[in-house]
Amino acid sequence: MPPRQPQQQSQRKRGWHAWLFAALALLLVGTGIALGNWQLNRAAQKEALQARIQAQGQLPVLDQAEFLALPKPLEALHRRVHLRGLWLGSQSVYLDNRQMHGLPGFYVLTPLALEGSNETVMVQRGWIQRNFNDRTALEPVETPSGLVEIDAVIATPPAHLLELGKDAAAPQAQADAATAPAAPATASAPATVGSSPIRQNLDLEAFRTQTGLPVRTELSLQQVGSASQGLQRDWPAPALGIDRHYGYAFQWFGLAALVAVLYVWFQLIVPFRRARRSRHG
Q1: I need a labelling partner for 158 at 20 to 30 A (CA). Which of 31, 42, 105, 224 fits?
Q2: Helix (H, G, I), strand (E, B), or coil: what is residue 169?
Q3: How far apart are the first and last CA of the chain?
Q4: pTM (2 decimals)?
């Protein structure tokens, strides 16, 4: 009897290990499948968003009265508009480190005071290439005076980039500018925002406070059309990352399949072959 106890204990230990490995493999396979499905759902959501963006772009162009009457303008994102107004060229902003066709440069933004209203919208007018010898030397941009008509697409405010080494005194300077009285800006008034029109980012709330302009802060416009006035307008499509989600899903499903194959091989096939060799040995 005593010699059988070590054998029984060894069998119980092997059985416990087998259940542990089975539970671990099941957990990993289930997690991989769940995460893969989640990535597929995210890709489907992004595809639906892409379809909505394309549908918005195919709707009739909004005129100025229709644009101003929009109750929820953000629901009309990516819809085309035709507007008429006055460029406030002295308040133009150049957003640095923006690329077009893989080249570094600036997005040029200028407020447009809409005709017949007390509203001003920030227009992303286009892109200019950086001067590689002198970053502060800006390429010439033509800003017509008088009333102009533009075609544009309703967009969110300009995206923010990560700012490294930002001056610690900047928040205090912004606070001082926000509390200082601001004279109403006109097309010929000098720029009142910062010491340079070149910025890394633009916060429309702060811009509105600092300039005194009635700038709409919940949206901006992207001017469309062929290159003109020294500006290129080949705006990149919204980066939705659909292919990335499919890539992640493939990786998670592949991990689940790998775990399943390894479990079958080491826990089923290898012990079976070992047992068969011992019986025939």
Answers
A1: 42
A2: coil
A3: 27
A4: 0.69
